[in-house]
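User: Can you predict the 3D structure for this chain?
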Amino acid sequence: NSTFLKQPSSLLKKLESGNDTGLEPSHLDKFYQRCPPNGENRVVIYTTTLRGIRKAFEDCNADRSAIESFGIIICERDTSMDPGFKEELRN
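Assistant: Here is the predicted structure, written as structure tokens:
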């Protein structure tokens, strides 16, 4: 889908090119980056505030709290409030 960028991380590119002096790859660098629309330069998480499925609601709250505990500012997209966010996840 054209709305997502699918490319290796810059660290992975450096490692593959042999220009890896002093670089330690993380496990996340092995994955391709996916950037949701308007998600450049920010951390985007998809959550739900619907309490109908209690486990999903509690997991979303726990994940949000864990990320924020590191002082990371997030862009939260509530899939229960905007069907467009669900569509972003499907693509």
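The CA atoms of residues 2 and 91 lie 9 Å apart. The helical segments are 10-17, 54-68, 83-90.
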